[in-house]
Each structure stands twice: as structure tokens, then as C-alpha cells.
Amino acid sequence: MRDMLHTDQLRGHLAVVVGAGASGRSAARLLARLGASVRFLEKNAAAVSDDFRAEARAAGYDLRTGEHGPADFAGADMVVLSPGIRKANLAQALAGCPGVQVVSELELASWFTPEPIIAVTGSNGKTTTVMLISALLEAAGRRVFTGGNIGTPLSEHVLSGEPADVVVLEVSSFQLQLVRSFRPRVAVLLNFAANHLDWHADLDEYLAAKLGLFAAQQPEDTAIVCEELRPLLAGRTFTRAAVTWYDVASNFLCRRLAGVHNQSNMEAAYLACRGYGVDETLAREVFAGFVPAPHRLQIIGEKGGVLFVDDSKATTVTAMEAAIKSFDRPVRLLCGGVFKGGDLAALAPLVKSKVSAVGLFGASREVFEAAFAGVAPVFYEPTLKAAMARLYADALPGDAILLSPGTSSFDLYPNYKARGRDFQDIFAGLPARDAGRAGQGA
Length: 442
What we know:
Strand order of the largest sheet: 7-8-6-9-10-11
């Protein structure tokens, strides 16, 4: 048990947790450990598993499902929103308790996190950079907790009592919109591009959320920001920390990570770790042996001389762009799904020069056809399997079939991981053929 946690700290307080995902459940456990009475709200009753219902009964939560109303928040001293739940959508329900503190699970857990925090945000590349940072720190002999928006919520680390020298967190704009005092010792902003415009009110709100990462930093802290963002942030006082602007470093090469964007991720990771015993020699060794996470430009294999690459994690236009740029061979692109915003038309020159065919599947057909028709051959199939089979039938030896959808997966799949696994399963079931016969409809 951490010395910072005392069961009487929130005794007599009512905490309302909204959203039965991993973050919400972890926040409820932490609040209960602190002595609070917990009221747990979940709009979708089907999202509440039998296991969680049993957990809620055992812990004494007031578990409520269905639409949220003012009565659900009556008497609340604190409201904790799971990532993806907009505070603005609860304005009417919260109107009866105007002084209530509304925070994210990240903010709540950070109050009880004594270790230095390295936090990473950006529109793309967050998970890879966090994994690189953790690998560097572990190679330097540091005990590391890795979590946040990737894997384990910070509240679980707080509850575990497990010691760590450094806490490394991936943080999303959803989480950052509701932070007040969250203070990373090192904060990293990798990039910024149109994303989540189906959730944020506009691009300005999205940027303001990202910059919330730096708001509570002090002069002795470090802010690491991509040089490309300097014009966008000119004139903004977004942090009191010392700012390190970084550009792509050509000296950090890694055979396992393709593309300029990953060179940038490696540079950011190295800069974040320099104060923790990581030098250039160690960084080179770690980067050379680094294995990227699944579904991020993951090479699946070859059939008939055709390379298959799973980049299902590319849920934005900028991630798709980075993926296409990573190849020095003709690309047959698979894309489609729930479009979240971005300038597809701006990719036309890149698509024209590198993409030999575009196979669309799932939702947003009209968006992609409007941008790519006439730039490269484009066809549509309702499913990933059908689109992939058509690309494979026409592919030539030396081509790459790239799943880099540029969208979220929620039209056909529960998440990008399921979409990537389907891609890999379809690849496994494709017929083998002689490389010399590829492209002949074999």
C-alpha cells in the first residue's frame, strides 16, 4: 500500500464515475480505497459484464445503467469521466451541481503518483514512442511502469503499490481535457493533425486539449515538442517548462522501424530519457533491437513475392500518409472505415506517385472516392476480405499490400486490433502462388 493512500481521505464524499471501461473501473477502485461512496454510471447496460456487476456489489457501488440524468449526479462531490465521454454532453445532467469537480481518471490517479512522470501525446506515434521510452529506461536499469492510454490505467499502478523509478504514460486528448494539476516531469508532443473531429468541437479544442499536457509544468520540468509545430504554437504561452524543439535525427537508424515518422519518434524518446542515464550508445543498441507493437507497420509476411503489412493502428489521415511514405516499393492500399477528419485531397500527389491501387472497404466510401478517384485505380468492396483478395489477385512481385485505413474501425470491428487480426487471418488463408505468376489472377 502506498503511504499516500488513506482510507479516510474521501470518507463522507460521493464520487460519481461515468463509463464502465478499464479507466472507469480503475478509478472506482481507487475512490473506494480512499473511502469514498461510489456511484457508477454506464449508459449501455450491455457493456456491464457479469464480472463487473459482481465486483460492484462486493464493493458497494451504486451501479446504474441507462441514460444519465440530474438525479444520477445529485449530491456528488466529484465526477470522474472515462476517456471518450464528453463533459459537454452531460451539461444538463450536471446543472444541479455547479460546483462539482469533474476530472479524468488520469488526473485523479496523478494526485497519488509520487514518481516522476514522462507523458507522451500527439495525433500519431504515441504508443511506439512510449514503448521506446520504456525500453530505453529499462535498459538503463530503471524500474518502469508503462500505461495510461496504452494498456494499464494509472489508477491500477497507484493501487498496486509496486515500486517504480519512472512512470511512462501515453495520454490522449480525451484524458487531457479534464486535467488540472497533472504535471509530467517530461512532457512530449510528437505532432498535431486533424483527428477526433467527430468528438472534439473543432480543431482549436483538440489543440487546447493536447497543450493541457504542459499546463501544470514548472520551470524545472522539460517540454519536448516537434520542430514542425513551432509555427502553430508561435505566440502561445503553453508551458512554464524549458522547451526542447526537436527535428528528425538521421543518426538514429533502426532496421525494425520504417519511415521518417519513426525516426522522429526515436529522437523524441531519446530526448525524454537523457536525464535518466540514457546516452547515445545505449539508445543505438536499444533502437537496433526494438520490436514495434502489433498493427503498427507490422510486416506479416510474403506470398507470391507480395509483402503484406498490417498498419491497422493508422486511424488518421496523417498516419496513413506516414505509412505510405515508408515504402520504396509500389503500394496497394487498403483503407476505409469511420472517417474522423483530415485532408485526404492533400495526399493526392503522394498517392499518385506511390500507390498503384486503392481497395476501399467498409464505411466512408464516398469520402475516399472523392479524394482518390482519378489519382489511382480505386475500387470498393463491403468487406476487408473481399478488398484484400482483389488487391492480391492483381498484385505484382515486389508490391506491398498495406492495410493503413486512415479511419477508426467501428463500422466493422470493435477496435483497430480486431481489424488487424482479421487482416492477418485473411493473409493466412490466401492461396500461395509462384512469385512469377503474381498479378495474373492466380
